[in-house]
Amino acid sequence: MIRIADSLTLERPPRAAPPPVDPGFGVYVHWPFCLAKCPYCDFNSHVRHSPPDQDRFLRAFRAEIADARARTGQRRTASVFFGGGTPSLMDPATVGGILAAIDEAWPLDATAEVTLEANPTSVEAGRFRGYRAAGVNRVSLGVQALDDASLKALGRMHTADEALAAVAVARAAFERVSFDLIYARPAQTPEAWRAELLRAISEGCEHLSLYQLTIEDGTPFAALHRAGKLVVPEEEVARALWDVTQEMTREAGLPAYEISNHARPGAESRHNLLYWRYGEYAGIGPGAHGRLDTPEGRRATSTERRPEAWLNLVEEHGHGLVEDESLTRMEQSDEFLLMGLRLAEGIDGQRFKRLSGRDFESMRVHALLAEGMIEQLPDGRLRVTPQGFPVLDAIVADLAA
Q1: Mind listing the pLDDT tens digit for each residue in 196-206?
Q2: Is the C-alpha dihedral spanning 84, 339, 241, 16 positive or negative?
Q3: Domains of the chain and any CATH numbers
């Protein structure tokens, strides 16, 4: 965990408008296939030598959507997110078929945000026009780095120039474009990151996702790290990289609205905001998770991770669920804290009370306020301060206790 230098002073984020009372309903669709597995990635992604049967998968997606509709009842869809894996390996017709099934089950709002993740290696102008015609209106590109040596070390299959060319293609096809970068990479300096981030900001996108590299168990990077063959920046350097990120994005008009996500006001990812505001969403596809509100209470769902096993389950039972469990009040309130405190807008203490059946422990709140780790807004919301964000996990644990 990154610690705070006592003498450090950061600007507070701008006053955030109150979030909506109802975060809305969304649908997450997981496409589990990639061209190659990145050594840092622990997502549910799989490489296959032969292309998957997209017609068969489309039939299974439709079946699982219909099954989920029977359990949720009537809803309107505010956002759809195609994640993976590499969803841009899907045919536009497959994406369109899935969106048609979602619209039939839970009608899409006229202003619904429909996001598709893409890798620069799979970007092609005609394909993107096909996604746009199918109903996608936002794309998120997995650029990850803007220098070729780092891209090679990260196992990426594109160059920096190819990544920026993909950004240009995306901006010509979609109204809303975002891309991801990973920092705190081995041997990365604040000066090098500043130059890279300046290049990213100059692309003019209204949304950037900027993640510190984490070593995830079970990945090739984890094995290299244990063997001493992969060394991430020391705590002090990692903190300096964080500070550069906050300073440059804020000055560029892309303040952090979530701990790792930066956007111009109004360009925030609506689907991810639904997660962080603890809204309701259906998880469709291999390894997808969901949170559904039913007459019996809020339920956590997850599906079979292995693509072929998921297909067999759906074809036999109409769904690929391997988990469908009721969440206790404590579990819900813990999730609400874990997600909501990531946001610059903060959380509503009254909603926490409705979920948990209790108020925050006042002594803990007062101690965190006195330490400058959180602040209370005029409307009563609590939010983490810039000084507190680097120790967010500890703050969540303290408030949940």
Answers
A1: 999 999 998 99
A2: positive
A3: 25-275 (3.20.20.70), 342-401 (no CATH)
